[in-house]
Amino acid sequence: MTHDDTWSIKALDTGTSVVEGSVLTYLRHCGEPVSIPRVIWVLEGSTTIVVDTSVNPLRKPNEFMGESFERSQDQIPENALKAAGVAPKDVEWVILTHLHWDHAGNCDLFPEARIVVQEAELRYAIAPGRFFRRGYLSPESGWPLPPSYVVPNLATVRGVYEVAPGVTVVPVPGHTPGSQAVIVQTASGPYCITGDAMMTYDNIESDVPPGYHTDVDAAMDSLDLMRARSSLLLPSHDYAVFRDRPVTLIASR
Length: 253
What we know:
The chain is of the alpha/beta class. It has helices at 61-65, 77-83, 119-126, 133-136, 201-205, 216-229; strands at residues 8-20, 33-44, 48-51, 93-95, 114-118, 154-157, 161-164, 167-171, 180-186, 189-193, 232-234, 247-251. It has one domain: Metallo-beta-lactamase, Chain A, CATH 3.60.15. Helices cover 17% and strands 28% of the residues. Strands 6-5-4-3-2-1-12 form a 7-stranded mixed sheet. A 5-stranded mixed sheet has the order 7-8-9-10-11, covered by helices on one side. The longest helix is centred in the C-terminal third of the chain and has 14 residues, at 216-229. The termini are close together. The model has no long low-confidence stretch (mean pLDDT 96).
């Protein structure tokens, strides 16, 4: 492993929602309100990569979904990126762990980047099962606008794919059919950015999948796969990843 193959990881807090606990942990903490972050991850190494793009600040998809959402000026994605020292025009790659409204909401910020999603995820997002239509803002959901991930620079991959030396996407289905995790080589070893395949550390500690899923057995298998790939897991919706806000340096090159 050379220095060119290692990356720093920053976590950007781009807003807060309060959700019911069993959304995060299947059949656990029912009825308990839990505050969760909406995270953008920034990888810096031989180039700049963004993982997930958070909630669109203008279209208010949270209201369509019936979820609370609060965001300060510092947490607006453009401002959080600036605080992290990143200009959207300098981002070469955007990796979408999946295409839900809170992970793929600002793709138009990165017109010069190549935006990567699993082919299986895009296929399902266009025509998902009835229960999941709203989360994708799919054409049949009643959402009045095209989903934010419908951009000309969207590209699909199949299976394991090396985005850049030291950054690899790995399919982790279950939460959605085409979810992908991101394995990132750092000076401290490989980290795994899990997307919603692992929403909170409680998923691993209690060995229970996320509550929102299309396939519970696949979700459990994906937890096992991520544990096997890395002991340094970064869940999508757990404030434990943050020491500072809106930006926390997680790992250095």
